[in-house]
Amino acid sequence: MWQRILRWVSGYVYFQGEGGFPEQFLSDVYSLGLHVSDTKREQEFLYGQCPIKEYKKLRKPAKKACLRLKIQKKSGLYFCLFPYRKRWGIPVGLVLGILLLSLLSSRIWIVQVEKENTDLADSVILAAAKDIGVFSGCCIQDIDMEELRLQMLSRLPQAVYVSVNPSGCVARVVVKGKEENPSIQDFHQNFSNLIASVAGTILKTEIYSGQTVVKVGEGVSKGQLLVSGATLSDRGNTYLRRSAGKVIAQTEHTLSVTVPFQETQFLPQGEPIYRPSFRFLCWEIPFFDNSPLAGQFIVETYNRLPRTKTVTLPIGWVDERWYPLTPTVIQYTQPQAIFEAENRLEQQKQRLTAQGITITQQTNKQIQKQSDGVTVTVWLDCEQDIAKEVPLQILDIPARN
Amino acid sequence: MNQRQKGRVRQRVEQIMELPDGTLYPALRMELCGNHTAVIEGCSRVLQYESCRIRLQTVQGDVSLEGDCLSLEQLEAGCAIVKGKFCTIGFSEL
């Protein structure tokens, strides 16, 4: 098979010899060292094939043997490319394509992050990788993987395992986070008490250290001592400790929102300004005037990059839409103001929940209608940990004479 | 010592030293694959070439191959490859 391929690449001709003495012809060809193969004799004709370069050399032995040679067929790469001899762009393009492919294939163009058990943002991981030398357009062969791994771990203390796995033109940065170990507290130092941060009724206590001075069901006021750091032993000795624990109490919270009938807000209005750019590998080519824009804007970015099952390709359009913010006077009717106030109250409730306060029920709601606006007030029953640690103050008592 | 005598001496040395035929002395060697392919080493020229008969001159006489659809695939470096359907293979000494 390889012989056939090589023969095709070098090119050959099928010829026909008529008349004469084919045996003498073949013997003379053989003695001259020429390569004639696949010969066949049919009646008075002799058929064979030889490389292009040796065909002219067959003339002498053919003349000597009185054989008339005629080319039947020409075959090979040379004859295939001959019609395109004036089209130099094809081989130039082929060579450029091969060069481009070999150049691009030797670099990383996509850096992807795979996280496990960690809340680290992708942008943080990518920035750390870029500092070390893993970025779109880098040559991964030049990087020492072990050194890279150690440097990444030092830059990401929250990670317990980091590796960069190159696969073709894609580098996958795998990051596994640490599982937080519970902190070991030393209750024999930093003596403190637990006091109530807000007033409430105690529902449940979970004390780890210190002496509890309140009971479940008891009402406490703000600043009242809940857990004392000074504990009394059976023998009457006083020991100082650091108080720790949770005191869950039922508390009351009042949320109030006032919405005027007329207010000014900065809202996105008007036609957005389009700022598209074309991303090719690691370069972004802007198709807009890069001058700074005056005023305030909200920017929305749309990535129109094609995506396969696992990889986002680094070629495509990135659109930015800049919406100008203009001060807008908003007029509310009374029902609209009440609705808006309730929406804002919901947002305040969500903020309370984010602080760890559980809202059990809404006990009361009041809507006050004024001439210039509406005020909505709600009273909420909540459950929260009201224990607040304060350091214990040790006073020097002068000795009695 | 003429060529013939030299050849005989070499042949004798081959026999004594138990070397394979053709090591010191050019010999005719033929390899048949079924009745369709023959590789003949030691050829020097073609005496007759027809579709039913091919005669080759070798270092140890003439070799005649008879059959149907015979063709000389290759002839170079003293080696000939003949393909076709062989009926008779004959030898005649120099």
Order of strands, widest sheet of chain A? 11-9-15-22-21
Shape verdict of chain A: elongated
Molecular shape of chain B: elongated
Gyration radius of chain A, rounded: 44 Å
Biggest pleated sheet of chain A: 5 strands, antiparallel
The SSE string of chain B, one letter per element, is HEEEEEE
Strand content of chain B: over 45%
Oligomer: heterodimer
Please tell me the overall pLDDT of chain A. Answer: 87
Give the termini distance of chain A in whole angstroms: 118 Å
Q: Which stretches of chain A are poorly predicted, pLDDT < 50 over at least 5 residues?
A: none
Structure description:
- The complex is a heterodimer of chains A (401) and B (94).
- Chain A contains nine helices and 23 strands.
- Chain A is an alpha+beta fold and 401 residues long.
- Chain A has a five-stranded antiparallel β-sheet, covered by helices on one side. In chain A, strands 16, 17, 18, 19 and 20 form a five-stranded antiparallel β-sheet that branches. In chain A, strands 2-3-1-4 form a four-stranded antiparallel β-sheet.
- In chain A, a hairpin with a 2-residue loop joins strand 6 and strand 7.
- The radius of gyration of chain A is 44 Å and the shape is elongated.
- Chain A starts with a helix and ends in a 10-residue tail after the last strand.
- Chain B is mostly beta strands.
- Chain B is 15% helix and 56% strand.
- In chain B, a hairpin with a 3-residue loop joins strand 3 and strand 4.
- Chain B has a six-stranded antiparallel β-sheet, with no helix packed on it.
- Chain B is elongated, with a radius of gyration of 15 Å.
- At the A-B interface, helix 2 and strand 2 of A face strand 3 and strand 5 of B.
